[in-house]
């Protein structure tokens, strides 16, 4: 059997980390929204996930309870601004579920929840450069089984659960500008099929999970949040954008 590297990614940060882990550790990369298993087919599971609202994406939140409780589990969480105890919240959640959690690693990646503000490119480049050192450390720790679990921290569980319950409303603030060419890419890449192209019109429904894949990856930058015509978008520059959402079978 191989390692299973399960990832959730809207703009490529977690995919990039997953690919770097695959290079060093080996295993199969699987996109969580498409993954139907429970991990028992793997020797070890490595979940690579962003931190959303001091917690985790809804897909990760729903994945963990269905995992095989015998398979060793490693979690790599990445964040843009502050982690705010999200690693300890993850630890508490996994402990409550009863999965075989071995380690949680944190690392910073460029912020991508940028619907209302802009992150300077020099800062993005600096974060990416520093992330390389941390990714190298994490992969070596996994290879050598230098595992670590977080010490008790103050978490923002209440804020996370409240925010997660309201994520479905975010798409109500999306619209399209005159630049929209009705290519259907946003429909294709949405992990919850929340976007519809019908009668030559893009419609956003109420199942949004706040990944912002549509917003950042629209080829015409035509998706607006609260009608703000921001030009800057973010996709991790070290991956091929069309690879986000795909699986990659690696060497064992």
Q: Summary?
A:
By secondary structure, this protein is of the alpha/beta class. Helix content is 29%, strand content 19%. The strands form three sheets. It has a five-stranded parallel β-sheet with strand order 2-1-3-4-5, sandwiched between helices. Strands 6-9 form a two-stranded antiparallel sheet. The chain has a two-stranded antiparallel sheet with strand order 7-8.
What pattern of helices and strands is seen along the backbone? EHEEHEHEHHEHEEHE
Inertia-based shape: globular
Low-confidence sequence ranges: none
Structural class: alpha/beta
Mean pLDDT metric: 95
In which range does the helix fraction lie?
25-40%
Q: Rg from C-alpha positions? A: 18 Å
Strand order of the largest sheet: 2-1-3-4-5
**How many individual β-strands?**
9
User: Main sheet, how many strands, which sense, barrel?
Assistant: 5 strands, parallel
Distance between the termini: 8 Å
Question: Beta-sheet strand percentage?
Answer: 15-25%
The tally of helices reads 7
